[in-house]
Structures are given as structure tokens and as C-alpha cells.
Specification:
The structure holds 2 protein chains of 2 kinds.
Chain A: H1 2-32, H2 39-55, H3 60-83, H4 91-113, E1 118-119, E2 128-131, E3 134-139, H5 140-162, H6 164-174, H7 176-181, H8 186-209, E4 213-214, H9 220-233, H10 238-258, H11 264-278
Antiparallel strand pairs in A: 1-4, 2-3
Helix pairs in contact in A: 1-5, 1-8, 1-9, 1-10, 2-3, 2-4, 2-8, 3-8, 5-6, 5-8, 6-8, 9-10, 9-11, 10-11
Chain B: H1 2-14, H2 16-37, H3 40-66, H4 73-87, H5 97-119, H6 124-144, H7 146-149, E1 155-156, H8 164-174, H9 180-204, H10 206-216, H11 218-223, H12 228-254, E2 256-257, H13 264-277, H14 282-305, H15 310-314, H16 316-331, H17 335-355, H18 358-377
Antiparallel strand pairs in B: 1-2
Helix pairs in contact in B: 2-9, 3-9, 3-12, 3-13, 3-14, 4-5, 4-6, 4-12, 5-12, 9-12, 10-12, 13-14, 13-16, 13-17, 14-16, 17-18
The chains are: A mainly alpha, B mainly alpha.
Protein name (chain B): Branched-chain amino acid ABC transporter permease
Keywords (chain B): Cell membrane, Membrane, Transmembrane, Transmembrane helix
Membrane topology (chain B): Multi-pass membrane protein
Chain lengths: 292, 379
């Protein structure tokens, strides 16, 4: 019983991170119809930026902010300089481009920051909280993870729903031509969208790294889980990404706890294939079945 | 004399199989000469170029001719390699090498059929994500079944003794004793040549035309009576079989099948080779494999000279691949070979144009040259 509860709690915490990462993928997919496979190394680079700030003797929170800001900038730069030329082109070119970026950022981080495991600090305890005499799997940092992701989602929701910029961003994602005719600077909105997505991605990176080890490859499997979560909820639906992330987190946590942690990736693959075969639009598909 | 020449030329244009076999024979001669003069270390390097080339050849057929992308070819190679390792677990295993390779191909082919059937319904980013998940998942299987598949350490591959007739033949042809690494390199290159002849032939026949038709326009292909699903699955199966052969050769060359050899990086590297050479061109795939094999050393040496540590310098090679991949997509989506071919065609058209009257040449040359470029870039 206790193991069941702990597995579920661990899964929910991890699921929150996957949800954030999936949300980052969905934000980019909605605006530019590109799945940004380079999201993982982008987040990894910003985590290393935070590590540099921490190593320089500054506080965790300054490092946290530095990582988020560098994520914002990195997203904007990548969209403007590299991705812009392939937008609207053959989709295979965009896929190859983001994979090329994946390799570049990976290698660059290994050259600049070194190719070894380094521990990353956590602002809160990473030991289980005590509830009624027993230790449960929810850590102080886990609570922070859940809250941070929830706050970020709330802010994004507010941005898209209640602000002028959010409306313009939605318009340029929905129909670039019409939006442009109505005076929306679509290019800028796309850059902003990538920047925001990259920020959310780097938040996910920080949350996974906290109290654990970082390495140039530490986010590689997360991009797969984030993608599976996004597809599970429907690549077009931000709510779906969050629900998909939580579901996936719990499911993978159970596989890891009861079968074996080596098979987590295989379980993710099986879930992905099931979703794509049975319900290609994801759980939250709004439109009628769309070709995948 | 003139008629013989003309007859030769028509044969060259008409017989696809004959042409491929002739090129393969020439390739075989070149390979034997090169391997004979190379050192043991170079032979192993050339062997690894061969297995990368085989896998890249399979991938280029899938991506270039059929328009499907796969990031899972590293995983498919792993399946070929593990099959080989299980069959060659000790010296008394007794299974002849050709049978082992065929078994590796067959197993990978089966897995490829399953993956391909699922992949046939997907396109673009969905396919990329699903095959990426495959690449991440497969090494985990080897870790989970520790007893059978050796876990983190992997499985050792024991190369059977070289058959005496091969030793005799090698001595007869070259006058030297055949070393084990040279034997491995010869095997790998022989497999490469056989695979490439099969792939080249297949892509020039009805099957290949179907693949291209599906890639270029699904609706038109369907109207012409092509079953989309069947064409996609067959392309994936053929490509997976090549990856299986590559995995078998890798296992024999490295003499180990371990999860660390089949990371995402391997799959991405294969894609680099294919993009670099130009999607759909087997020669380009071989060029890409050559760059993957020989570039790291050059770049690492340059890095060390520039004052980087060894570990940092070792990361420069992937950095170069990645940068080249990005630049190729942005500047020359047809790849190195594709771009060169387009430039050559354009020049030939221009030269043909200057021979005739100028007014017609501009009319005919312009649309033809654009159609060749678009053929090179649509993937």
C-alpha cells in the first residue's frame, strides 16, 4: 500500500516535469508546426548556465533566474537565426534541422562545460516529508516542482487569454496570413512563442536537475517522454499536454517501480504506439480525426 | 569500331543490372587493393566505415526515396549486432558466418516489418518522435534481460576461425597471409558491395519507382494504383534489413555488442551521414560514412593543437557534424552529392544550350534545370 502511494506520488511529481516539457513542445508545434527535438539540449545548456552562476558563489535563486532568462534568449535566437528559413518548408527539413541543433548544442556543452557528471543543488530538502510518522515519497523539492509548474502554467494561461500580446500570438498561430493582414507582426510573435517555450523547457530542465546530477546528455530521454506526453494529450492542446504529462509520469513510475527502471523507455514507446494507433489526435483532439 | 562503341553505349544505358554489377566489380577490385596495402589499424577503420556505409545506405533509401525519416536505425543495428553475438558466443559455435549474417538480417527484417507497419501510418515529426523512442528504448531491453543479453557489459563476439579455403585464396591472390582484421574488413566491404548492388537495383525497378511516387505525391500515387501502406512498409523493411547487416558487421568488427554502442548518438550520426551525402544517393551515403570515420581524428588533432584538452577535443567532431547538418539543410538541402549533381546537370544543359540557337535554349534550359533542383530538394 505504501509502495503504491509512493510510486504514485513520485509519478505525479515527475509527471509535472514531463507536463512542462510537453507544454514547451506544444507551444512551438502550435505556432510553427515544428516538433523541436532540440528542446532537450537547449534546456540542458541553460541548466549549465545556472551551474556556472552557482559555482561563482551566487545564490540558487539568482542561478534559477539566470537559467530562465538565458532560456528565453536562446529560444528567441534559435528561432530567428536558424529555424526561420525552414518554417513552412518540407517538414522533414525542419526535423533534420532540429536534430542538427540537438547535436550541435550537445557537443558545444561538452566542449565548454565538460563531459562529466556534476551535482546540481536543490533549494529545498530532497528527503521524503514525514506525514504521521511515516516518510512518504514527496520531497520538499517535489512540492516546489509541482508548485513551480502550476504557477508557470497559470501565468501562460493568463498571458494567452487575457493580454493583447497573447491574443496576437494565438492569431498568428491560428492563421498567419489573416493575422498579418490585420497588422500582427507574425514573425515577432513566432520568435516570442519560441522564447516562451524555451523558457518553460529550461524550467523543466532545472526541476529535473535539482538535487541530482547533470551531464550534457541528461535531458535526452526527457525529450522522448515529453514528446510522448504531448502526443498522448494531442500535440495541439496545451491542456492535453499537462494531462498527458501527468498520466505518463504516473504510468512510467509504476513501470519503474514494479517492472524495472530499464524498461521505462520501452513502456513510453508502447504507450506512444498505442496512442498513435488508437487515437492519433491524442486524448484531447478537438477536430475530427486528423491525418498523423 | 564505331558500332561496337555504340553497342556498348546502348548496353550501358539499357542494362541497369549489368551496369551495377560492373561498378560493383570495379569497386571490389579497388577494395581488395586498398585493404591489401592498409595497416591493421586502417583495416579496422575501413571496416567501421563499411558498416556505417551499409546502415547509411539503407537509411538513404528510406529517407531519400520514400520520404520516411528514421532515428531508430541505431536500434535496428543493435538488433542485428545482438543476434550475431548470440550466435557467435564461443569458438565452437560452428555456425558459418554467412548464415550468421543472414540470421541477423532476418531478425532485423522481422522487427523492421513490425516497426514499419506502425510507422507507415505516421509522417514527419510523428515518425521522427516514434523512431527516436525506439532508439532510446532498445538499449534498455539489453539492460533488463541481464542474463541473456549481458547487461551493461554486453556480449562478447567470438570470430570463428578463418576457413582454410579463404586463407588459400587470399594467399593465392595477394601473396600475403590474411590477418584477422583484414579478413573482417574484407567481409564488411563485401557485404557493403552486395547490399549496395541490391539497393541500387531495387531503387531503379518498379519497387523503387513506387517508393518515389509515394514520396512525391501520395494522392497521385494512390490514383495510379499504388498501395501507400505497402510501399512504405516495404521501404522500411528493406532499410531495416540493411541496418541488420550493418549491425552484424559492427559486432564482428568491434567483437562486442553492448548498449553503450547503440546510443541515440549513433542513430543521429547515421542521419548526419545521409544528409551530408544527399538524401537518396548511395554514393552520398558512402561519402557520409567516410567522413564519419575519418573526420573525427582530423578534427580532434586540430582541437588538441588549438589547446583543448583531449576530452574536449573529442567532442569537436560531433560539433562539426551538427553544424554541417544545420548548414546543409539551410543552404543545400540536396546534400553534397545532390548539389554537385545539380550543378553538373545545369552546366551540361547550358553547354547544350549554347550549341543550338540561343532563343530556344533559354526556353528549354530554364524549366528543366528548375525541375532537377526541385527533384533534388523534395525529400
Amino acid at each position: 500500500m505504501q509502495q503504491l502511494l509512493n510510486t504514485a506520488l513520485g509519478g505525479l511529481t515527475l509527471g509535472m516535469v514531463y507536463a512542462a516539457f510537453a507544454l514547451a513542445l506544444v507551444l512551438i508545434w502550435r505556432s510553427t508546426r515544428i516538433v523541436n527535438f532540440a528542446q532537450a539540449p537547449m534546456a540542458m545548456v541553460t541548466t549549465f548556465v545556472a551551474l556556472v552562476v552557482v559555482d561563482a558563489g551566487h545564490s540558487y535563486w539568482l542561478a534559477f533566474a539566470a537559467a530562465l532568462v538565458s532560456g528565453l534568449l536562446l529560444g528567441a535566437v534559435v528561432e530567428r537565426l536558424v529555424v526561420r528559413p525552414v518554417e513552412g518548408g518540407p517538414e522533414i527539413n525542419a526535423v533534420i534541422l532540429t536534430l542538427g541543433l540537438f547535436i550541435v548544442l550537445h557537443a558545444l556543452a561538452a566542449v565548454v562545460f565538460g563531459n562529466r557528471y556534476r551535482s546540481f543543488p536543490a533549494p529545498f530538502g530532497v528527503r521524503g516529508l514525514e506525514v504521521g510518522g511515516t516518510t512518504i515519497a514527496l520531497t520538499g523539492f517535489g512540492v516546489f516542482t509541482v508548485l513551480a509548474v502550476l504557477v508557470t502554467m497559470g501565468l501562460l494561461l493568463a498571458l494567452f487569454r487575457y493580454t493583447d500580446v497573447g491574443l496576437r500570438m494565438r492569431a498568428s498561430a491560428f492563421n498567419p496570413e489573416v493575422a498579418r493582414l490585420l497588422g500582427v507582426r507574425v514573425g515577432r510573435m513566432l520568435t516570442l512563442g519560441w522564447a516562451l517555450a524555451s523558457l518553460v523547457g529550461s524550467l523543466a530542465g532545472l526541476l529535473i536537475a535539482g538535487g541530482s546530477l547533470v551531464h550534457p546528455a541528461y535531458m535526452d530521454s526527457v525529450v522522448v517522454y515529453g514528446f510522448v506526453a504531448a502526443v498522448l494529450g494531442g500535440l495541439d492542446s496545451p491542456i492535453g499536454a499537462v494531462v498527458g504529462g501527468l498520466l505518463l509520469g504516473v504510468a512510467l513510475s509504476f513501470v519503474s517501480g514494479y517492472v524495472g527502471s530499464q524498461l521505462v523507455a520501452l513502456a513510453a514507446l508502447v504507450i506512444l504506439m498505442l496512442v498513435l494507433t488508437l487515437r492519433p489526435g491524442g486524448l484531447f483532439a478537438q477536430a475530427a480525426a486528423r491525418r498523423v | 569500331m564505331a558500332t561496337a562503341l555504340r553497342r556498348g553505349r546502348t548496353w550501358w544505358a539499357g542494362s541497369v543490372l549489368g551496369r551495377h554489377l560492373l561498378v560493383a566489380l570495379l569497386g571490389l577490385v579497388v577494395v581488395v587493393v586498398v585493404l591489401e596495402s592498409a595497416s591493421d589499424f586502417r583495416n579496422l577503420q575501413l571496416a567501421s566505415m563499411a558498416y556505417l556505409g551499409i546502415a547509411a545506405g539503407g537509411l538513404t533509401v528510406l529517407t531519400g526515396l520514400n520520404g520516411q525519416i528514421s532515428l531508430g536505425h541505431g536500434a535496428l543495428m543493435a538488433i542485428g549486432a545482438y543476434t550475431t553475438a548470440l550466435l557467435l558466443d564461443d569458438r565452437d559455435a560452428g555456425t558459418p558466418l554467412p548464415l550468421v549474417v543472414l540470421a541477423a538480417v532476418a531478425v532485423t527484417l522481422l522487427v523492421g516489418a513490425v516497426v514499419g507497419a506502425a510507422a507507415a501510418r505516421l509522417h514527419g515529426p510523428y515518425l521522427a518522435g516514434a523512431t527516436l523512442a525506439l532508439a532510446v528504448a532498445v538499449p534498455g531491453i539489453a539492460l533488463y534481460f541481464k542474463e541473456q543479453l549481458g547487461g551493461e557489459q554486453g556480449l562478447r563476439v567470438v570470430l570463428p576461425d578463418i576457413p582454410t579455403w579463404v586463407l588459400d585464396l587470399a594467399f593465392f591472390v595477394t601473396g600475403q597471409d590474411l590477418t584477422r582484421s583484414r579478413y573482417v574488413a574484407c567481409l564488411a566491404w563485401l557485404t557493403l558491395i552486395v547490399t549496395f548492388v541490391l539497393l541500387a537495383n531495387l531503387s531503379r525497378t518498379r519497387v523503387g519507382r513506387r517508393w518515389r511516387a509515394v514520396r512525391d505525391d501520395e494522392v497521385a500515387a494512390e490514383l495510379a494504383g499504388i498501395r501507400l501502406g505497402r510501399a512504405r512498409v516495404s521501404a522500411f523493411v528493406v532499410s531495416a534489413a540493411a541496418a541488420g547487416a550493418a549491425g552484424a558487421m559492427m559486432a564482428i568488427t568491434v567483437r562486442l555488442a553492448a548498449p553503450s554502442g547503440f546510443t541515440i548518438t549513433l542513430s543521429l550520426t547515421l542521419l548526419t551521414a545521409v544528409v551530408l551525402g544527399g538524401l537518396g544517393s548511395l554514393g552520398g551515403a558512402l561519402l557520409g560514412a567516410a567522413l564519419l570515420t575519418f573526420l573525427p581524428q582530423v578534427v580532434t588533432d586540430l582541437g588538441v593543437d588549438a589547446g583543448l584538452s583531449d576530452i574536449q577535443a573529442a567532442e569537436l567532431a560531433p560539433l562539426v557534424y551538427g553544424l554541417v547538418m544545420v548548414v546543409v539543410v539551410l543552404v543545400a538541402p540536396a546534400g553534397l552529392v545532390g548539389t554537385a549533381r545539380t550543378a553538373l546537370l545545369r552546366r551540361r544543359l547550358q553547354r547544350a544550350g549554347t550549341g543550338t540557337s540561343t532563343s530556344t535554349s533559354t526556353d528549354t534550359a530554364a524549366p528543366t534545370s528548375t525541375s532537377t533542383t526541385s527533384k533534388g530538394t523534395t525529400t
